[in-house]
């Protein structure tokens, strides 16, 4: 997975292999082994950073359920006593932030999901999780107040 992460960090947004990489990484993000899933999460973060540096819309990264999986991870507190999950939560929130900054569509999709329940679960789990969620909510409010329109009825 370290090699995959390095490859993702060098992949350009217009690369024709991005779609295949996103599909494979999405499957790995749901892998039963937490180390594999966390490595896939870091790969997505590398890809999102490449998109951000190129000022490209990162919407292609979300084509296989990435946003839904990130919200699920954020609200998953059944193992919140495990301190090794704190970096994963930081990576999850950072990735969501990067994606929202780069894509109005992703911001729209994120707000339409059951984000409130996920955040409520996360803020009750751990002080660090709470701070990370506050950072995400702050960004979302800024983006929405700057004019990103989100309709709850769509």
Tally of separate helices: 8
Ranges where pLDDT stays below 50 over 5 or more residues in a row are 150-154
| Spatial extent as radius of gyration | 15 Å
Query: In terms of quaternary structure, what is this?
Result: single chain
Mean pLDDT: 84
Query: In percent, how much strand structure appears in the residues?
Result: under 5%
CATH architecture level-2 label: Alpha Horseshoe
Molecular structure report:
There is one protein chain. The protein has 154 residues and is mainly alpha-helical. It has one domain: Leucine-rich Repeat Variant, CATH 1.25.10. The chain has 8 helices and no strands. The protein has helices spanning 2-10, 18-29, 34-53, 66-75, 85-102, 104-112, 115-125, 127-145. Helix 4 (66-75) packs across helix 5 and helix 5 (85-102) crosses helix 6 (104-112). The protein is globular. The N and C termini lie far apart (38 Å). Mean pLDDT is 84; it is low at 150-154.
Task: Explain briefly what this protein structure is.
By secondary structure, this protein is mainly α.
């Amino acid at each position: 997975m370290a090699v995959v992460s390095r490859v993702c960090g060098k992949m350009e947004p217009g690369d024709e292999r991005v779609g295949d990489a996103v599909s494979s990484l999405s499957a790995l993000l749901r892998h039963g082994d937490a180390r594999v899933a966390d490595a896939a999460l870091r790969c997505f973060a590398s890809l999102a950073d490449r998109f951000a540096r190129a000022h490209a819309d990162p919407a292609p990264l979300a084509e296989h359920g990435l946003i839904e999986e990130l919200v699920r991870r954020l609200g998953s507190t059944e193992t919140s006593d495990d301190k090794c999950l704190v970096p994963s939560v930081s990576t999850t929130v950072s990735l969501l932030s990067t994606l929202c900054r780069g894509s109005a569509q992703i911001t729209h999709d994120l707000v339409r999901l059951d984000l409130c329940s996920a955040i409520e679960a996360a803020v009750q789990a751990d002080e660090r999780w709470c701070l990370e969620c506050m950072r995400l909510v702050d960004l979302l409010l800024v983006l929405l107040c700057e004019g990103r329109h989100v309709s709850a009825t769509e």
